[in-house]
Amino acid sequence: MTVGDRVVLGLALTLIVWLYARFWGGGAAGDHIQVLVAGRPYQQEDLRRNGRLTIAGVIGPSEIEIRDGRVRFVSSPCRGKQCIHSGWLARDGDFAACLPNGIAVQVVGANARFDAISF
Amino acid sequence: MTVQVTREDVRIAWLSAIAITINVLESALPSPLPGVKPGLANVITIVALCWFGWAPAAWISLLRVLAGSLLTGTFLSPAFILSLSGALASVVALGLGTLAPGKGLSAIGYSVCAATAHMAGQFWVAYALFIPHAALFRLLPVLMTAALIFGVVSGIIAQALIRRVERA
Fold first, then answer.
1. Any CB–CB contact under 8 A between A118 and chain B?
2. Hey, is the C-beta of B94 within 8 angstroms of any chain A C-beta?
3. Among B50, B99, B108, the residue to mutate for chain A (most A Cβ within 10 A)
């Protein structure tokens, strides 16, 4: 094990630690949500506004709830209910969708972390 | 006109054959994550680098990717493109590694260089060509950790091999 080896190992470890900090660090707190219907922006809501929201989708109405700066799906006419099982969304970038109904909810922070996300 | 086959050609051919065999055998192993492989064929590349220099090692690495893909039926597939980009990146990194001052690097140093460059090159091409989604970056730390671990393991194996086998 030469000096060069140790330098290489040290650099690799530093790089990896930095990668974890950069990409696994929690995002900023959510500021508002963007509701998308059929892939297109539909409505924006401030996360400070507590309340429920009903959105008409392809197969029926989905209901989302905003409370204490978080948002979640409450009810949806889909079969799998994965949207509801996604639970509370709070941080910038968090995302839940009811695919059968074509409704998606995205949490956006005050300073958008990503310029655009396409899916 | 006959082609003159040099001794180096024979060495490269032999070592490439071994590397290709290891590659094909390894492709039978299931991988926990897409893109994470032990990369044991790299041991041959590192051994060749330590014994014969950068050029033979580069040849072996690229020949292994090419022939391995032909044998496993993945030639020109996305897997091949990822493999090739990783191999090219690791070959460049090894070239830089040979420039290390002083005593330079041993098998372990070279292996870690090659492994991390391989993973970085592969990831970049995967992001640019196949999955241009920001969320892919959350996979990068895990991939790099795996690259480092397997790089060290390959390096240790290469070092053990070098110590036990007399230079051809």
1. yes
2. no
3. B108
Question: Whole-prediction pTM value?
Answer: 0.74
Q: How far apart are the first and last CA of chain B?
A: 29
**Sheet of strand A51-56: strand arrangement:** A51-56, A61-67, A70-75
CB contact under 8 A, A23 and B148: no
A110 vs B: CB within 8 A: no
What ipTM was estimated for this complex?
0.84
pLDDT on residue B77: 92
The chain B residue lying nearest A25, using CA atoms, is B138
How many CB pairs below 8 Å do chains A and B form together?
60
Q: Is B122 on the interface with A (CB under 8 A)?
A: no
B160 in reach of chain A (CB within 8 A): no
Q: Which range has the top average pLDDT, A80-84, B3-7, B49-53, B88-92? A: B88-92
Q: Which tokens belong to A113?
A: 């972390």
Q: What is the pLDDT of residues A48-63, one digit of tens each?
A: 888 898 998 888 899 9
